[in-house]
Amino acid sequence: MPELPEVETIRRGLSERILQTRIEKVIIRWPGAVEDWEGHPFTETITGLGFESIERRGKYLLINLEGGWSIIAHMRMTGRLIYHSQEREPEKHTHVVLKLSQGEVHFSDTRKFGRLQLVKTGERMNVPSIAKLGPEPLSEEFTPEELAKRLKPRKINIKAALLDQTLVAGIGNIYADEALFRARILPERPANSLKKEEVEKLHEAIQEVLAEGIAAKGTSFRDYQDATGEKGSFQKQLKVYSRGGEPCTCCNETLERIKLGGRTTVYCSKCQK
DNA sequence: CAGTACGCCTGGATGC
DNA sequence: TGCATCCAGGCGTACT
Question: Does the N terminus or the C terminus of chain A have fewer Cβ atoms within 10 A?
Fold first, then answer.
């Protein structure tokens, strides 16, 4: 599941490979994967344009093209954006192929939740899904004080709060569970019940797990692959996610597996308070 | 603001 | 072996 570290890894991989190229042809194999911009059709608008830069905001990739156009890409659960230096037959779930002046990019998504959305570059930060995102957790504006301020009015449990993209951007189910374990905080705790020291620990834990996730080129639990089709390795460092019923790496207690906000949550009832 | 449910999807795991 | 059912879950939207 591409969360911040996975999307950042894709951003870096694509940036190294496609910034000097131009889109020569667009092949849409499943129209549901793309969204036009106010009467400007996806294919016709981007054909012929070169790439200028690739940014990331939360779990969104912002691919900036020439001519004032951008593509906002979201992988959701199973999306992939993979660069091939040679021409390659699309796979079963490849929905869009961008033929470039050198190589090609395939957008594939088994579950068809992901989207490529055409927007004006000047409007990219104003589209609702991007505009409402909370701070970037690895940026300077994301301080312990900022996190505390944002948690204070929230009565929901801290796990659900971390998954709320308007509170802080980019954290998904994997890194939320890992950050809470590292900060030794129970996921059921109301967000506004965290003491100052706990918020500071959580802030540090969030930054650590995300940075380590990026360093490991992401978590390839099921479907995730980077921009070249390689798997990440952070799944080897997971302490709680997907380990329900297994012993805690710290105290050997059996890890609990519950549902919070409709999502599977794993934690250690002995280590986390 | 909280919470819940639903829709979007397929494949792998599980149950019979 | 084959078929039915469950589960994984990010996010937008609707409704209470």
Answer: C
Q: Which nucleotide is nearest to A172 (CA to C1')?
A: C10
CATH class, A144-267 region = mainly alpha
pLDDT tens for each residue of A154-181: 989 999 999 999 999 999 999 999 999 9
A65 close to A37: Cβ distance less than 8 angstroms: no
Within 7 Å of a protein beta carbon, the nucleotides of strand C are 7-13
Catalytic machinery residues of A: 2-3, 59, 263
Q: Please, which residues have CB within 8 angstroms of residue A223's CB and are 6 or more apart in sequence? A: A1, A77, A78, A80, A110
What does residue A62 show for φ and ψ, rounded to 5 degrees?
-115, 105
Cβ contact A153 with chain B strand, < 7 A: yes
pTM for the model = 0.96
CA distances to A9, A81, A92, A200, A215 from A78, in Å: 15, 10, 13, 33, 21
- pLDDT per residue over A223-249, tens digit each? 788 998 888 999 889 999 989 889 999
Q: Is the CB of A260 under 7 A from strand C?
A: no
Chain A 162-191 residues in 7 Å CB range of strand C: 163, 165, 172-173
- Model confidence pLDDT, tens digit, residues A109-136: 999 999 999 999 999 999 999 999 999 9
